Amino acid sequence: MEIKLYLRMLQRGWWIVVLTALIAVNVALIAAALTQPVYRASARFSVSPNATLVTGADVITSLEALDKRSIVVTYAEFLNSTRIYNETLGALQLTPTDVLKYKHSTVVLPDANILALTVEGPDPQLVAILANSVGERAVAHIKDLYKVYDIALLDPAIPPVAPVSPQPLRDAGLALILGLIIGAVLAIVREQIRVPLESYRNRMSTDTISLAYNRRFFDRQLEEEIVQNAGDSLSLGLVRLEGLSGLIDTLPQPLTQQLLRQVTTILRRELRGNDMIARWDDISFAVMLPSTPETAATRTLTRIEQALSSPIKLDQYGESVRMSPAVSVSTRRKDETAAELLARSEEELERNRQLSSTETG
User: Fold this and answer.
1) Within 13 Å of residue 215, how many CA atoms lie on the same side as its CB?
2) pTM of the model
3) What is the pLDDT of residues 163-203, one digit of tens each?
4) Distance of alpha carbon 17 from alpha carbon 49, whole angstroms
5) 250 exposure class (CB count in 10 Å sphere: 0-12, 13-18, 19+)
6) Contacts of 78 (CB under 8 A, 6+ apart)
7) Residue 271 — left, alpha, or beta (φ > 0 → left; ψ -120 to 50 → alpha)?
8) Residues 6 or more apart from 61 whose CB is under 8 A from it?
């Protein structure tokens, strides 16, 4: 169930996911275009017993000593030596300032007596030269100090053809994946923030008893409709439930709630999707009909009056209540304000009530 909920959140916020992924890819591509390329070259060296000094049973003993890795690790430290590196720079007529963007390191390959000296920097030719030169100088120092074990160049460094970074395609792919993940998180967080805000707005604009809009929100929406669509037809209907007059204050809260919610359901069934329903007072409802001329609005309110004239059954109480609705319809006149339209609608409703009372009497 939670997975479906998250999927719906992602569906509603799909544009956030796509936008975040596109931004991430663009940032990665721009960064790759602006970043100086870095090249890497490696030279490999092998360590073995010196065949001229070690013979017979001593060879086995020497190989066992190599298995303890202390000899190989010691040789790796020679290749990593700062002094040897600086001596190499001097021999190549380079200064430390010339190689600020270069770095070197040596690792012992697992399960082998092989050392790999790696140099990284912006010049593919120079990284290979440095790797080979540092290795050559380190080998010379080692051979002067250690005679039993020999170290030799296995694979010389070759100038690389392509940089190790940046790699636009790889970086863009990683950025795309990261952007999709971040976008999905943002979309879910947005939905989690938006839903409570929408719930709060709905509570502020809804009459909790009838579940129609409250009068304050209806007034504000009516004014906005007049301002935004001043040239369009706008009709306003009022529905007063005379059958609840004198009864609404004596009914239990659950019964009042059930009655008024059924009235709201009937009104919604008779109206269009863009029409608005609000509870006007204790026993009255207001209906706003945007883009509706007077004739069509009159037909709509007539249908509502007929629908509410039938008794509303309350099954759990075994009773029926007659609403005895009185309705009025007013269509906005030119330059008429929301307050003037409402006042005219209320006057029209009062006239209809009096006329109905006279005819009944």
Assistant:
1) 10
2) 0.49
3) 998 888 888 899 999 999 998 888 888 777 765 555 545 56
4) 60
5) exposed
6) 84, 138, 141, 142
7) beta
8) none
